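Suppose a colleague, Dr. K., hands you the sequence of a protein chain of 155 amino acids and asks what its three-dimensional shape might be. Before reaching for any lab equipment, you can write down a predicted structure in token form. Begin with the sequence itself:
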Amino acid sequence: ALETKGIAPKCVLYHTAVALDKNIFVFGGDSGIGVANSKAVSNELWKLNITSLEWTKVKPLKSLEARKHHAACEFGDFMLVSGGIAEETNTPFNDFHAYDPEKEEWFKIHDQVEWAGLSHHTMTPVYTSKVKNLYSKNSSNTKNKIDTNDVISDN
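The predicted structure, expressed as tokens, is then:
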């Protein structure tokens, strides 16, 4: 077993984990492990520094709504998060956010993108020498794309 330092996050299901630089960020999920139809959905963001193996709970000024079954990926210097469901509903979120680890803050990219409103889906960045695209795919194998022009802070 790998020994880490600091206080580690609770064990969660249906969370996301993204590697950025020398850190792994873990966001959201359901901490009601072993409880049928758990309502213990989280909006916590944790960082594991892979050099020091130390856990840190990240406390951005604004946080996202608690969610599980969302998707996340690395996109340049950002962690992107879309969709997922809250604890009190099975209606997927139709928002789209980016986490900036330098500023330690979330910002909303769009209230709604063409393929938002998903849960139980994946997102994958695709890099080429000229274009940076982000693909999302849901369980019905519908593939959707946005490009870097869509990743704009409204701050």
